[in-house]
Amino acid sequence: MSQADPIIRIKNLHRVYHLGGEDIHAVRDVSLDIHPGQMTAIVGRSGSGKTTLLNLIAGLDDPTEGEIWIEGQRLADLDPVARLALRRDRIGFVFQSFGLLPLLSAEENVGVPLRMRRLSRRDRQQAVKNALDWVGLNERAHHRPYELSGGEQQRVALARALAAHPHFILADEPTGQLDSQTGKKILALLRRFVSEQAITVVIVTHDPQVMEEADVVHELRDGHLIDTRLKNPAANGGTVNAR
Ligand code: ADP
Ligand code: MG
Questions:
Q1: What is the distance in A from the centroid of ligand 2 to the CA of 46?
Q2: What pLDDT sits at residue 231?
Q3: Whose atoms come closest to the Cα of 43: which ligand?
Q4: What is the pLDDT of residues 171-181, one digit of tens each?
Q5: Distance, CA 148 to ligand 1 centroid (Å)?
Q6: Which atom of ligand 1 is closest in space to residue 48's alpha carbon?
Q7: Within its chain, how far is the Cα of 172 from the centroid?
Q8: What is the CATH number that goes with domain 1-90+167-176+191-243?
């Protein structure tokens, strides 16, 4: 795949939930490309379909209609085992609520996804240490989540994503539970994922800070993609890939 190819391609995507005899169109005919080496924000109010879209990209849910390609591979062609491998080997997840296991220390949390891989104990420990160093939390390695601030917990979550060397990170409201100063620091760290680790970052959010920081902003309203704004023309050769 060449540099210019999208890492994620979404075409005419629909997701309709059937709930108590009612049809809820969470995602309606969304088409967009996400390019490597960029920070992409998908923004919209609560209920606009952001989390639904992220789950579809992650292969955690199936579209009612439409297609998704991940690094040129059609998601619909992957069986459950291949989807699991995709999530394990190529996608890092970051959540609003951090998603840390409460009884595990920071370093144990970072090591969790690595346990699904064939790594020696020593290599695993080294990867964990490197990731915690990179987010500036090595001195908190033995703390449990409740002994950490919200910003620190989110940094542990970022270290956990980083340690597994994903191709891209899907972040659902990563600053949603943080004050704006702390949110800014988390965004700066996500920016360094893009610039220093060559990891593509996709953030769904309604936080205006994220919209300012992102290279590309796609806006959803009631499941529709209503706007695509390019913030940093240098980042993808100056082309907008709207629908
Ligand atoms: P956002 O993340 O932007 O807040 P969501 O993707 O969570 O939006 O939800 C989009 C719409 O789909 C909302 O109207 C929500 O109530 C509905 N929805 C989300 N998940 C489900 C589900 N599992 N079953 C039924 N409706 C759902
Ligand atoms: Mg959501």
A1: 6
A2: 80
A3: 1
A4: 999 999 999 99
A5: 31
A6: 3
A7: 6
A8: 3.40.50.300
